[in-house]
Design goal:
The complex is a heterodimer of chains A (362) and B (293). Chain A is α/β, with parallel strands linked by helices. Chain A is built from ten helices and 19 strands. In chain A, strand 16 and strand 17 form a beta hairpin. With 293 residues, chain B is an all-alpha fold. Chain B is 79% helix and 0% strand. Chain B is globular and about 65 Å long. Classes of the chains: A alpha/beta (362), B mainly alpha (293).
């Protein structure tokens, strides 16, 4: 079932949680709402669920106007950050709850409920835990119960509010993969709210990035990673070098993208660590800067270098393949030349400094 | 939810002889105080009650007036306690689950009966419902008796006991949060299912605890009831009032016999309260939840 979000606004006193957000989530899609805290992502999720009402705008579920519909009749499954399991009920009763509270006409027979609950407990691999209580389970197990409970009523939409953020890193990763498998199996339209960019990029079909109540960018994980639409998205996704400077006219020798076009205008440039080229000799055809190797992280397929630019000491991160690293035989303290293979530029009102004078190519 | 047991302080500190002596002195002091000011009076009540033998004791109790006072006390408690349970749940639900203007004023108002002297409470009702009070003439016209009648006693008792359930529930429900209730609503539960299947099971022990406190207070209330009752023997005297009247008439054995009934009631409620605390750890749960949040 598709979800259309049209011009949603929400204000809490003087704080604008959502400022005119429009977004369409296709049926069967797994969409991540990604953003820092205070970006409005959870508010948006709660509005989709019917737990909050927007000041303005509308929510259409499967093309039907649903803004005024109550949360209990929207046919949604909701998974909370802190599980919100019923503490006085067994795991079995927790999962059965949504079926037991249905009106008499809709409610399945006892036998049917039992079968359905067992089926779901099997799906979340907790068959043997049916008679236990939530407090006897680990965090990861509790969140799986919460998911089974949400799925019991066969929701048309599944909403997850930071479901893995209270769990430790290893469990978080396992559950993330497992959520993706369940989604591939059931194809329920799913909206996942998270502040963890890795989680969003890894698990979702599409990612919507929110910042200060506004939609910054929406797209597939790859398109967002490859072509961040704004400095905010670049910063938020992390793992990037940031340069301030003034645009020179003769940038033709280097690959460049982004919104900044005006020669001599102030700009911010973003370069991912793996987009930096390294060499011991000064290259002839491009402008490069000299940098000193501060530290080398050699665990993993890519070698990560912490560099310090000669002259101003600005820190820069670079990445290179293991093979190239071994050929160059780099050790901490070495001086090497660095230049960007590609750079993404955005206009910047203020700061004009640094890299220009170093001749790094911007 | 971890149930950390505190390490006994005796393991951490190896006391010197002097410290041991000081500790023993402290314990002894506390015990003496308890014995002198709490246990001795209770013993005195029973010894006075039985001073003229079991026969005299039972005769004093089965007196018409004492029995009717006992009946009235039970009746008042039977009305006041359920009213307070309903009010307590409604107020705590409103305060912990909704935002509304005047919320902090409401929280303060719930505490008024605890800070106002019960005598003043009684006088407020006389001022409102009494013959010369605001509603007095109207009540007279319709032949309704509030002051110096059972309704007044019930009203006064409700007033004094009204904070108990709410004060027990509010911190408990605040600590629990509303996540489970929201989850239930999203799963399609209506208000009825929400309350009986989720809210009530979660608050039941705190509710019972508050109810016990309210019950014991409504049985024992003297000041407020004394003002509105009019002390009509066999009609508007509750057990505490009957005790005072017997005592003022120098009928000590009967007074203490009636007092012993109140004392037994108090001991029974204390015992129930202890059992509730022990088996469920109401307060331990509250502490744990507060620690978690």
């Amino acid at each position: 079932m598709s979800i259309q979000i049209e011009h949603i606004r929400k204000q809490y006193g003087s704080f604008t949680a959502l400022a005119d957000v429009s977004l369409t989530i296709e049926g069967g899609e797994l969409m991540a709402l990604l953003g820092p805290s205070g970006s409005g992502k959870t508010t948006l999720l709660r509005i989709i669920a019917g737990l909050e009402s927007p000041d303005d705008g509308s929510i259409l579920l499967h093309g039907e106007e649903s803004t005024q519909q109550s949360a209990s009749t929207r046919g949604i499954g909701f998974v909370f950050q802190h599980y919100a399991l019923f503490r006085h009920m067994t795991i079995f009763e927790n999962v059965a709850f949504g079926l037991r509270v249905q009106s008499r006409q809709l409610r399945p027979t006892r036998q049917k409920i039992r079968e359905r609950v067992q089926e779901l407990l099997h799906l979340v691999q907790l068959d043997t835990y049916a008679q236990m209580y939530p407090e006897q389970l680990s965090g990861g197990q509790r969140q799986r119960v919460a998911l089974a409970r949400a799925l019991a009523v066969q929701p048309k939409v599944l909403l997850l509010d930071e479901p893995f953020s209270a769990l430790d890193a290893k469990v978080r990763k396992e559950l993330r993969d497992w959520l993706r498998r369940i989604h591939d199996e059931l194809h329920v339209t799913t909206v996942l709210v998270t502040h963890d960019q890795e989680e969003a990029l890894e698990v979702a079909d599409r990612v919507a990035i929110l910042n200060q109540g506004k939609l910054e960018q929406i797209g597939t994980p790859q398109s967002i990673y490859d072509r961040p639409a704004s400095p905010f998205v670049y910063n938020f996704l992390g793992n990037v070098n940031l340069f301030h400077g003034r645009l020179l006219a003769d940038l033709s020798s280097q690959v460049r993208e982004g919104s900044a076009q005006e020669p001599n205008g102030s700009a911010i440039g973003f370069v991912r660590p793996h987009e930096l080229e390294l060499s011991r000799e000064l290259p002839g055809d491009v402008k490069a800067v000299l940098a000193n190797i501060v530290r080398i992280h050699a665990t993993g397929p890519q070698i990560r270098l912490e560099l310090s630019i000669a002259g101003n000491g600005r820190p820069v991160a670079a990445e290179l393949g293991r093979k190239q690293f071994e050929e160059m035989a780099l050790v901490p303290g070495d001086d090497i030349f660095v230049w960007p293979q590609s750079i993404r530029l955005f206009e910047n009102g203020e700061d004009t400094s640094l890299l220009l004078d170093q001749g790094a190519g911007i | 939810m971890s149930r950390n047991r505190a390490i006994p302080s005796s393991v951490l500190l190896r006391p010197s002889r002097l410290q041991k002596a000081g500790r023993a002195a402290l314990v002894l002091l506390a015990l003496l105080f308890l014995a002198g000011f709490l246990i001795l009076p209770v013993v005195a009540v029973f010894s006075q009650a039985f001073s003229q033998g079991w026969r005299m004791y039972s005769d004093s109790i089965v007196q018409q007036d004492v029995l009717s006072a006992l009946r009235l006390t039970c009746l008042v408690a039977a009305i006041a306690v359920p009213l307070n349970v309903v009010f307590g749940i409604a107020a705590s639900w409103a305060i912990t689950r909704f935002e509304f203007p005047g919320k902090s004023l409401m929280i303060t108002m719930i505490d008024i009966p605890l800070s106002v002297s019960p005598v003043v409470a009684g006088m407020m009702y006389v001022e409102v419902f009494g013959l010369h009070g605001w509603l007095g003439p109207w009540l007279m016209e319709h032949n309704l008796h509030v002051i110096f009648a059972v309704p007044g006693i019930v009203l006064a008792t409700v007033f004094v006991t009204c904070p108990f359930v709410a004060r027990e529930l509010i911190p408990f429900m605040q600590a629990q949060g509303s996540d489970e209730e929201i989850a239930a609503v999203v799963l399609g539960a209506n208000g009825w299912n929400l309350f009986w299947r989720v809210t009530l099971p979660n608050i039941k022990w705190a509710l019972l605890y508050g109810t016990i406190l309210a019950a014991s207070r409504s049985i024992g209330e003297f000041g407020a009831v004394s003002v509105v009752s009019g002390h009509i023997r066999g009609k508007t005297t509750t057990l505490p009032l009957e005790v005072e009247m017997l005592y003022n008439e120098y009928n000590f054995t009967a007074a203490f016999a009636a007092a012993s009934l109140l004392t037994v009631a108090a001991i029974v409620t204390l015992a129930i309260k202890k059992i509730v605390e022990g088996t469920t750890g109401v307060h331990r749960e509250i502490e744990e939840q507060e620690a978690e949040s």
